């Protein structure tokens, strides 16, 4: 079954049309990377999948639930969709432990000890169990992002969205975050990743989607889209990303 | 090239006209010191030191105010201030949330409230509260004078605090709300657990200043007509000074206010500085 199904999605900000008819699906267990120049609408697309942006028209179906249906319980739907932001967005006034447990406790109504063991398990997974009592501002960017991943995983999502998760990191910290994401992909998590990391996309993605000007230009396996692009715009973009300065 | 540099650099050999700037500055500073000394000497000569000592620094009269100065007057001042602050805090938070609501009438109500109560003197509010029983016969605020004082100080400080809270909430980065919502938290839950705690931290310095203002404004409670047991600092000082026909108690009362306002102001500035450094 498709985890994500997007049909003729349009999104405008005022008179600016950012998404101009997007159709695509993410199958369960797939890793799909969305690439494209800035301003191409890829982040907006991702934010439409959990309705942080309200689509202007079209359908967004996640786990068989049409999120654009006005009667749908959006809070319930979002519990099943993990989101990782470019700026991490950890809660700075709460400890790492509380960051990972607060939504479990308040939203899923789990018992305290269960919240805590789920938090430990997921912090272990991202390799930061020893930081459980630290506050986010005491952590490096890479550590914060890994805590953010653990926070999302603690809700047992069926889908994880990543919005340029490594773009705000110092280059030497990118690797740790990518290896956590790689592990997540190996464990069979369904992932939709907006990224500029071509190496990651080529190696981990089942499919790569190239967007430009609010439409999907190319959609296929990475060996095709990255190694042998069919469209001139894709080729132009990849040339600039892979060989900057030429 | 050479013409330009000749124009710009005055020749050091050329004799200066009048005094050098440094000399002028030194003379001006000397005049300022001299003026200060003259004023102090004249005031000291004109003042009747014996009378000042007896009227303002009369330890005997000051001692008569004890221990009521602290156990009654200061205690009441603190009670009036804190109860007004607590009411203003809660009401201000609600008004701030209304001000940011997506329901337009809530926004209007909040704006109207804030504009009205920021624009009225507290003295007038107390007079109005005193006349409430005229509008609602038999109506009595719970807590008597204490209730009226809390209400009067609360409704006014709520208007100021609402604006502080609104600014604080808006200063929390947008990503915080998005992260909370993406974890499935409803809007109100995200506000309570994530946004408001951060907003309160941001507005702690202005809230502390608000507390200092309230402490001073609590002196206006005397207009409500208080008994000896309900008296606060300012009225206590005034009453004592009438009783003993000596203004020393007023000075003592002033010092008691400063005992609280100066440390509080210091705390507020410290918090402000720390926040400024953290950003």
UniProtKB/TrEMBL annotation, chain A:
Subcellular localization(s) per the UniProt record: Cell membrane
GO MF annotations in UniProt: ATP binding
Entry keywords, A to Z: Amino-acid transport, ATP-binding, Cell membrane, Membrane, Nucleotide-binding, Transport
SUPFAM superfamilies referenced in this protein's UniProt entry, alphabetically: P-loop containing nucleoside triphosphate hydrolases (SSF52540)
Domain ABC transporter residue range list: 4-238
Major location category of this protein: membrane
CDD domains with a match to the protein in the record: ABC_HisP_GlnQ
Membrane-topology annotation of the record: Peripheral membrane protein
PROSITE patterns: ABC_TRANSPORTER_1 (PS00211), ABC_TRANSPORTER_2 (PS50893)
Gene3D superfamilies on file: P-loop containing nucleotide triphosphate hydrolases
Family listed: Belongs to the ABC transporter superfamily.
Protein name: Amino acid ABC transporter ATP-binding protein
Automatic annotation (TrEMBL), chain B:
Taxonomic placement: Bacteria, Bacillati, Actinomycetota, Actinomycetes, Streptosporangiales
Residues of the ABC transmembrane type-1 domain: 74-268
Membrane topology, record value: Multi-pass membrane protein
Record keywords, A-Z: Amino-acid transport, Cell membrane, Membrane, Transmembrane, Transmembrane helix, Transport
Annotated organism of origin: Microbispora triticiradicis
Extent of the signal sequence: none
Annotated InterPro entries: AA_ABC_transptr_permease_3TM, ArtM/GltK/GlnP/TcyL/YhdX-like, MetI-like, MetI-like_sf
Location(s) in or outside the cell: Cell membrane
Protein name from the UniProt record: Amino acid ABC transporter permease
Ranges for region Disordered: 1-23
